[in-house]
Structures are given as C-alpha cells and as structure tokens.
Amino acid sequence: MALSDSLRKQFDDLIAKNKVVLFMKGNKHFPQCGFSAQVVGILKDTGVPFETVNVLSDPAVRDGIKEYSNWPTIPQLYVNGEFIGGCDIVKEMYAQGDLQTKLGVRSEPVAAPAVTLDDGAAREIASAAEQNKGEFLRFDINETFQYDLYFGERKPGDLEVTAKGVTLLFDPASAKRANGIHVSWVSTADGGAFKIDNPNEPARVKPLAVNELKQWFEERKHFELIDVRGNDERAIAMIQNARMLDSATETHLMSLDKASPIVFQCHHGRRSRSAAERFVREGFTNIYNLEGGIDAWSVHVDPNVPRY
Amino acid sequence: MVSARRPERAAVLTMTIADTMKAAIEEAIAGANVDVTPGSGQGHFVVQVISPVFAGKSMLESQRLVLSALAPLMKGDNAPVHAIDNLRTKAS
After folding, report:
1. d(Cα A151, Cα B86) in Å, to the nearest integer?
2. Annotated catalytic residue: which of A22, A266, A275, A276?
3. pLDDT at A219
4. Which residues lie below 8 Å from residue A131, measured CB to CB, with a gap of 6+?
5. Is there a contact between A72 and B60 if contact means CB atoms under 8 Å apart?
C-alpha cells in the first residue's frame, strides 16, 4: 500500500514540531504492548518531555509509519527529526548513554554495584561460564525489575563486578538498579534457579508457597496470617490461627510497622492477591500471597483440612 | 486424542514460520548464519544473525537489513510474524 502524500506530510509535521516523538501502541499512560511500554519507561526515566502517537487509532497510520520509516515494527522513536529505531535499539542506546546524548540530558556516571553471591550461585555461574568461553554473564534489570541473565559479549559502558571468582557485567541502567543485590541458588522441581534479593525493587506482593508457610510455622517466625474469606467458607476449612479480614483485623494491621510480614490467604489465591495488593498500596513492604490458597495447603501440607 | 495432537501441530506450524524467516534472511544477506527460535508467544520470535556485512554498520543499519527481509512476513493484522522479541546482529 502506497503512503499517501497527505499522511506523509502529517508525519513530516509531527516529527518537525516535536523534539521527541514515539509512534507506539496505546499511549504513554496506557501502553498496549510490552515493547511500547519498555520504550515509554525509558523515556520517562530520562525525564525529557515526549509526544506519543497511538498507531492503533488508525490502520492507515499504523501501516503508513512502517513505510515512512522503512521499519516493519512498532514502536518507533524519532528524536530531532531523526529515526532512532525500535525497542531493542532504544534499550541498547539507553544502556550505553547514547540515547541520553541524543536527547541532550546528562547521564550521570554510574558506579559498579555491590553484589554478593552465595556458594551455589557462584558455582552455577562458573560452570555455565565454562561452556560459554569468551562471553560473560550479563545481568539485565529492566525498569519494571524483571531480570534477564544470559551469556554475551562485553559492551562499551559495561560495569564489571567480580564476586567469588565469577565475573558479572551490568549495563549502566541495570547497574543503578542492582546495587546491594544478593544472588542465591535455590533448588526447584526442575533442577534449580537463581533467587535474587534486590533492595532497590519497589514493594510488590511476594508469592509464598504452602510449604514455605509450613516452614514459617515450624520456625515460629513472627508474621500475620490473614484469611480474606467469609465465615461461610471458614466454617468448611481453615488454616490454624488464620485471622479473618474484618474491620477489627484491618485496624490492627494498619497499626503495625509497615515492614511487618503479612500473609494473605483465600481459597485458591486470587481474592487474597487483590487484598495483598491493596496493602502494598498502603505502603507495606513485606506482603505475601499464599499461592494456591487453602486448597494447595490441604493438597500439599495438611490433608486434614477439607477441600471444597 | 484430538486435544493431545494439537500442540504437535502448533509446533510444526511454528517451525515452518521460523524456517521461512530463516530463508528470507539468508536470501537478503548472502552467507549469513541465521538462528530463529520461538519467542514469548505465538508469532513471537528471537532472531540472531551473524554475517560479515554488519562490520562497521550501526545497530540501526544492521537491524534494518534483517527487518526489511522480514517485513513481508510482518505485514497486516494476521501476519505470521507478530513480533521479534529480540534481534541480535553480529559481525563475523
């Protein structure tokens, strides 16, 4: 399909009038695709004002911009009239500080993060490094604190950390989010996985498995267990000492220190998740959701608790 | 039985799209070493291309070479290739 002259003129004008324009799916408040959301996150991080064009609002714009830029994917970023690229390129340029240069913002120098590894994590990384000679473990942390660990080449601007004899590489944006992390190796059903404790992460609801809850009881750990179900369901089955979330409990919880561990529980773990998220929004930082709820508890821990 | 067969057929279909992508890139960039693997969902792929043509080229130029080869497969609402989750180009 040929790009109409009027549409070409519209794109020319948009790009000429705005220093930073992002053609994306959705808008900056509600991105409707993960790639668009990542670029919005990066632009917000830089602090520069930017204009967005929602390509989903008009199929002609969506197809037209692909032809205009000679680029088949969305999002597409323009800065000072120049086509910068899509999500991969924006991420890479941001990591290396080139995007900040183009935008005319200063990228402050970043120090190498403090990282600690437990013996298991160090052993796993070292043995994987054996099979990836010439490459290094790259440790990416995106703006929503999702982690990506993979072997790759060294890049300009990387910050290098050596811990327990293994080398980790962070791009500057990831390094800022990594200071103080502790990486450990935990065994799982399919072998094992890295567990990452990161003090920079914003508070979120943490998943708690039923066997972890059992362990907490055995360790006599101090925590609150809150059952968000009503009396009808509690009459059928209950986990010992689980308090119902009524107004008295609510008042009690609100009076607690915001770092107190609180576990929310329901039948299958869905209703409790929304309650848990509400407490995170109230500023609590150690909020857990019992995954699978009381049903998982009776299947995996205590068969005396009836299932329903 | 029918439901047990479905994933197999989907896997075969995915393979075919990946092979088509690989062929399209190899046609555009002679002698390229192309690796296409499934990505985060239906129609999502991870692509790695190694070729001497990328030497001295910027990431934008390198990706444009690969993406323009894939553009016909990414056109329209029902395109077989919905997204490239990650595209890595390396000069060999």
Report:
1. 14
2. A266
3. 94
4. none
5. no
**Which residues of chain B make contact with A89, given a CB cutoff of 8 A?**
59-60, 63
Cβ separation of A89 and B60 shorter than 8 Å? Answer: yes
Q: Mind listing the pLDDT tens digit for each residue in B59-69?
A: 999 999 999 99
Interface probe, candidates A88, A90, A94, chain B, greatest B C-beta count within 10 A: A88
In A118-271, at which residue ranges do the beta strands (DSSP E only) sit? 136-141, 147-152, 159-163, 166-170, 181-188, 191-197, 206-208, 224-227, 243-244, 262-265
Which residues in chain A have their CB less than 8 angstroms from residue B74's CB?
A: 72-73
Read off the amino acid at residue A20: V
Is residue A53 pLDDT above 90, yes or no?
yes
The structure's pTM equals 0.61
A266 noted as active-site residue: yes
Give the number of other CB atoms < 10 A from CB of residue A233. 15
Task: Test A71 with B75 for CB contact under 8 angstroms.
Answer: no
Given a contact cutoff of 8 angstroms between Cβ atoms, the answer to whether A137 and A166 are in contact is yes
**Which among A70, A83, A85 has CB closest to B68?**
A70
Nearest by Cα to A173 from A203, A200, A202: A200
Q: What is the pLDDT of residue A110?
A: 81
In this prediction, the answer to ipTM > 0.90 reads no
Contact: A71, B64; criterion CB under 8 Å: yes
Determine which helix (DSSP H) or strand (DSSP E) holds A116, and give its type and residue range. Answer: strand A115-117
Whether the per-residue pLDDT at B8 is higher than 60: the answer is no
The secondary structure of residue B53, as a DSSP letter, is: G
Tell me: the pLDDT tens digits for B21-58?
A: 999 999 999 889 999 998 888 889 999 999 999 999 98
